[in-house]
Amino acid sequence: MTQQTGPILLATDLSARGDRALDRALQLTKELNTKLIVLHVMESHATPARLTTPVWRRLSSDHKSLAERELAEDLSAADVPSEVVVVSGDPLTRIMETADSYGCSLIVTGIARDETLGRLLLGTTVEKLARQARQPVLVVKTRPRKPYRDVLVATDFSPGSRQALRAALQLVPNANLTLFHAYDVPFQGKSVPDDAVTRSFYKGAEQSAQEFTAQTPELAGLTPPKVVLEPGQPETVLSEYSFNHRSDLVVTGTHGRTGILRTAIGSVAERLLESLPSDVLIVRLIDGE
Length: 289
Description:
It comes from Achromobacter kerstersii. The chain is α/β, with parallel strands linked by helices and 289 residues long. Helix content is 37%, strand content 21%. It folds into two domains: 1-141, HUPs (Rossmann fold), CATH 3.40.50.620; 146-288, Rossmann fold (3-Layer(aba) Sandwich). The strands form two sheets. A ten-stranded mixed β-sheet has the order 3-2-1-4-7-12-11-8-9-10, sandwiched between helices. Strands 5-6 form a two-stranded antiparallel sheet. Helix 4 (91-101) crosses helix 5. It starts with 7 loop residues before the first strand and ends in a 6-residue tail after the last strand.
């Protein structure tokens, strides 16, 4: 059994929607034979109570002890080594500090949603985590009915893409891998590119894919990944492919040459998190790795 290089950190706001992330974190902890650190951050300047806030948080002044009790009960039946951490402060700062201090190799979180307003509540924190955390960030959106198997890795054949692929192989060692590349076919003037132009861009992407896989030693000895090359905007064609092929997990880097794999993922990442039906693993490029 492959083991993570460090524990898994689950960052939870204790909302009902966060149960999906908890269940997935527990499943991964068992699969990877590691430890689960469950972190809840009490914000120093909490926002006023809202409909999505649990009753026990609205009615109790002793948030810390109640949060610890709630999490201990959630973990009581889980057959995995675990530790509960409840701290105060800025969520982003505390999540990264805890992940580093425990030597965690993965951060797992969910996306809480204010259904009344129809907007993401934790989107900003998740986006900042993806840009700043050293560890890959797994954003859980779906109910974990089964282990990850069909994994879709978005790639632009850059070093950041290779790190994303390595993270996918570490998290899901027995994955059915698909490498997905969206390539741009520029318009010449206002005319639609002819078939010859389109084929030339496809051939270029195909050559890049062959070089990328050949230069990724972690793929040696494994079943070669399926390679899918499609023209268009990455966040659009990737979402369509993921939906049509029912991918369990989509993996993407934050650094690269084009599209969603760029230094400031910003609004593209938010659109990706919104549009993808599957869970998303976001891997930041660490220089020198």
